């Protein structure tokens, strides 16, 4: 009998194309992802992924299981909802951990009040969700979506840092800096590609687990960091500096949804979200 949890881990590995990325996404260790996949392969008698230095690539059997697994997990949610008392509609919401949810309070309120029969709960992974506030790059084809915001990234330094008098910096300035790493960043590889193209070796002092912690570590003088502009806060000890790039790096935040009651689909279609922070105009 196939258990549900390994299917969640399999789907994460399938969508991320990497055991490491899947582990970060699911907040578990890499061996746990590997064990879940091997367990599924043993139970089904197939190979689900081809493994190479670049990561993992699904086999034909892996592609087949992905479609069946996503359908199964959604049906499992619907089965539970069908037998809930008081005819409540259980909706599962996933919020990407590095998204500043305070910017989207109006979205959550709209969803909560679209119908008195809706019971909204938070889940740990997008595979469990019918609704998600998420980076578009992390979204599977199972979802429809409505774009909410597009944001760029800023370099955050202490006010007494040598770069604090600048309003803009180029990647070349990164050479002599010590960074706090943001390992969960969707655009991490894009930044790495640009720094590699310019032969810039980035030095990391340590890793953070969320963006508020990053800013605290910067404030302590342990390094600088690159963060999404939605995490800019009023803080006299920090300076946020625009990064000048030949090819701008941004992320698109979306409200994703699938197989929802018609009343909620209508509410989503009517959402007109205004971001609290607007992207700075180029001068």
What key attributes describe this structure?
283 residues, alpha/beta, Arc Repressor Mutant, subunit A, D-Maltodextrin-Binding Protein, domain 2, 3 domains, five-stranded mixed β-sheet, four-stranded mixed β-sheet, 8 helices, 33% helix, globular
How would you summarize this macromolecular structure in one to three sentences?
This protein has 283 residues and is an alpha/beta fold.
Beta content: 15-25%
The average pLDDT value, as a whole number, equals 86
Number of strands: 13
**What is the CATH third-level topology name of the largest domain?**
D-Maltodextrin-Binding Protein, domain 2
What structural class do you assign from the helix and strand content? alpha/beta
- What's the tally of helices? 8
Helix/strand order:
HHHEEHEHEEEEEEHEHEEEH
- How many domains, in number, for the residues? 3
Quickly name the level 1 CATH class of the largest domain: Alpha Beta
The low-confidence parts are 276-283
In the CATH classification, which architecture of the largest domain applies?
Answer: 3-Layer(aba) Sandwich
Radius of gyration (Å): 21 Å
The main pleated sheet reads as: 5 strands, mixed
How are the strands of the largest sheet arranged?
4-3-5-13-6
Which term fits the overall shape? globular
In CATH, the homologous superfamily of the largest domain goes by the name Periplasmic binding protein-like II
What portion of residues is helical? 25-40%
């Amino acid at each position: 009998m196939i258990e549900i949890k390994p299917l969640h881990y399999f789907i994460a590995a399938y969508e991320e194309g990497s055991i490491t990325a899947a582990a970060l996404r699911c907040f578990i260790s890499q061996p746990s992802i590997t064990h879940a996949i091997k367990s599924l392969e043993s139970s089904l008698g197939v190979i689900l992924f081809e493994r190479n230095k670049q990561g993992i690539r699904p086999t034909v059997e892996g592609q087949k299981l992905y479609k069946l697994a996503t359908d199964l997990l959604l049906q499992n949610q619907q089965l539970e909802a069908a037998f809930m008392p008081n005819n409540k509609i259980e909706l599962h919401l996933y919020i990407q951990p590095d998204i500043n949810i305070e910017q989207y309070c109006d979205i959550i309120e709209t969803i909560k009040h679209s119908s008195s029969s809706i019971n909204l709960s938070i889940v740990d992974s997008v595979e469990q969700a019918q609704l998600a506030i998420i980076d578009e790059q992390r979204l599977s084809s199972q979802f429809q979506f409505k774009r909410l915001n597009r944001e760029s990234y800023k370099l955050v330094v202490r006010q007494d840092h040598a770069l604090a008098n600048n309003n803009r910096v180029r990647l070349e300035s990164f050479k002599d800096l010590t960074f706090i790493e943001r390992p969960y960043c969707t655009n991490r590889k894009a930044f790495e590609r640009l720094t590699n193209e310019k032969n810039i070796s980035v030095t990391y002092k340590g890793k953070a687990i969320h963006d508020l912690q990053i800013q605290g570590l910067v404030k302590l003088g342990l390094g600088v960091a690159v963060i999404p502009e939605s995490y800019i806060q009023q803080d006299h000890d920090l300076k946020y500096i625009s990064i000048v790039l030949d090819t701008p790096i941004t992320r698109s935040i979306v409200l994703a949804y699938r197989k929802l009651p018609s009343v909620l689909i209508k509410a989503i279609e009517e959402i007109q979200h205004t971001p609290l922070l607007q992207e700075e105009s180029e001068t």
